[in-house]
From TrEMBL:
Keywords, alphabetical: ATP-binding, Kinase, Nucleotide-binding, Serine/threonine-protein kinase, Transferase
Pfam families (UniProt xref): FHA (PF00498), Pkinase (PF00069)
Name used for this protein in its record: CAMK/RAD53 protein kinase
GO MF annotations, alphabetized: ATP binding; protein serine/threonine kinase activity
Location of the Protein kinase domain: 113-378
Domain of life per record: Eukaryota
Nucleotide-binding is among the record's keywords: yes
Alphabetized PROSITE patterns for the sequence: FHA_DOMAIN, PROTEIN_KINASE_ATP, PROTEIN_KINASE_DOM, PROTEIN_KINASE_ST
Organism (species): Fusarium oxysporum NRRL 32931
Binding site for ATP: K142
Length: 498
């Protein structure tokens, strides 16, 4: 009796649990009284709980002798989500059939899938594990909430056609879209699972990748982007957070392609331009002059390749100084970057040449995906004397003088971020468990920070699976607006001296 009352008090204090609900038991104060000695004074509680963007009913077993749902015991102090027509039994004769109110709006998604653990939260959506009721197969579902008064692309006539194109995508290196549900207040995208999480996490945990590891990744990434480009799909948001690892053997899939089709062009572009670390210079141009081509994906892949090989980005406000008075956006627009020692000393010249060819400011002169796939660093073939890949032989010969830079300290992404696996969710027999990652617990704040994605965002705004983003890093005059602590004092002091 005392244990049950103590647990009831504890339950009412727990986050997300309604203090109301319906109490079933032997005690006269229960909402439903069952006069039987087998039944506990407070046997079980049925209450509502918010899950994702829906309200579900939960039964909690408070009894000594057990509460059963569909003949399966719930377990003392355990909970179970109730579904339509579930049978609840408190003993052999006392049985109840659970029904949701008729006024409750039924989600087409929830009719076909059961929502499970939350995997992450991004700028536009929350990501959950879900299970298909008909097959028992598990997927990830990305839930976009529609906000009234904000551009809502999901209401336009073309959305279903555009989503249909995305659902038609099938490639081993592209995260495929299994199903979509466009409902009154939200859009559900059901996706393949990527058990090992983001490439960003992998880089942070390893500090940097070897050339062989990077080569294995980029053969797949180039093939995936080639597939999309052949279908006139431009990704436009390639970054380590949108590259997902399928297994421990570095098999990867590109995620979030076609996101602009789902959330709307204006919302997507506004956020993208506030995340300049990976975007091509033409995206940073004035909106009237902004022009998107497939070349923007090549630039972003070049930035990711650079990060993989050294552990930090090529463009950063960390570099701002009297001798290098260029903000992040100015560095990108002018293509100002190099390969500082000692970080690049062990990386071969062919890798640098490929990056140079991908990070060309003029999109007309920038490498295409086909040229990337044919580059000697990727094919591991020796360039011929008459090679016409933009002066490859001469370029490699001049790299040591022109592009490799003297020793200079840079801050690794691994020094600014902490990543740990907080859970491994089983998803079926003979399948790898899905890892849930926690980022930046106990972040160190007394060091100069790299312009890593989402460093200055509110944590509930733009993290985890599906993308991260930086604050707007520059004003109309291209001056840095980094806050004090992110080299802000240094930048202000240097500007004052000039």
């Amino acid at each position: 009796m005392k244990d049950e009352e103590a647990f009831e008090k504890k339950k009412k204090k727990e986050k997300g649990v309604s203090s109301g609900g319906y109490l079933i038991g032997r005690h006269p104060e229960c909402d439903i009284v069952v006069n039987d000695g087998i039944v506990s004074n407070r046997h079980c509680l049925i209450f509502t709980e918010n899950k994702g963007n829906d309200t579900v009913a939960i039964v909690e077993d408070l009894s000594s002798n057990g509460t059963y749902v569909n003949e399966a015991i719930v377990g003392r102090n355990q909970r179970r989500e109730l579904e339509e027509q579930d049978e609840i039994a408190v003993h052999g004769k006392a049985r109840f059939v659970f029904r949701y109110p008729q006024s409750r709006q039924t989600s087409a998604f929830l009719q076909q899938y059961t929502l499970l653990e939350k995997l992450g939260k991004g700028h536009f959506a929350e990501v959950y594990l879900c299970v298909e009721k008909a097959t028992g197969q598990r997927f990830a579902v990305k839930i976009f909430t529609k906000h009234p008064g904000v551009e809502d692309r999901s209401k336009t006539e073309g959305l279903q056609q555009e989503i249909g194109v995305l659902m038609g995508v099938s490639h081993p290196n592209v995260l495929c879209l299994k199903d979509t549900f466009n409902e009154r207040d939200r859009v559900y995208l059901v996706l393949e699972l990527a058990p090992e999480g983001e490439l960003f996490n992998y880089i942070v945990m390893k500090q940097k990748l070897s050339e062989d590891e990077s080569r294995k990744l980029f053969v797949q990434l180039f093939q995936g982007i080639k597939y999309l480009h052949e279908r006139n799909i431009v990704h436009r948001d390639i970054k380590p957070e949108n590259i997902l690892l399928v297994d421990k053997n570095l098999h990867v899939k590109l995620a979030d392609f076609g996101l602009a089709k789902i959330i709307g062009e204006e919302s997507f572009t506004t956020t993208l331009c506030g995340t300049p670390s990976y975007v091509a210079p033409e995206i940073l141009a004035d909106s009237k002059q902004r022009k998107y081509t497939k070349a923007v994906d090549v630039w972003s892949l070049g930035v990711v390749l650079y990060i993989c090989l050294c552990g930090f980005p090529p463009f950063s406000d960390e570099l701002y100084s009297r001798d290098f008075p260029f903000t992040l956006s100015q560095q990108i627009k002018s293509g100002r970057f190099d390969y500082p020692s000692p970080y690049w000393d062990s990386v071969g010249d062919p890798a640098l040449d490929l990056i140079d060819s991908m990070l060309i400011v003029d999109p007309e002169k920038r490498f295409t995906i086909d040229q990337c796939l044919q580059h000697p660093w990727l094919t591991q073939s020796s360039p011929g004397v008459n090679d016409s890949t933009g002066g490859l032989v001469g370029g490699i010969a001049g790299l040591e003088v022109n592009r490799r830079a003297p020793a200079r300290e840079r801050t690794l992404l691994a020094s600014l971020n902490t990543v740990q696996v907080t859970a491994q969710l089983e998803v079926g027999k003979d399948k790898n468990p899905v890892k849930v990652f926690s980022k930046n617990k106990g972040r160190v704040t007394n060091i100069a920070k790299e312009s890593d994605p989402a460093a200055q965002r509110a944590p509930d705004e733009f993290i985890e699976m599906g993308g991260k983003g930086d604050q707007e890093l520059f004003a109309d005059d291209d001056s840095s607006i980094y806050p004090i602590g992110d080299n802000g004092e240094k930048i202000k002091a240097n500007k004052a001296k000039r």
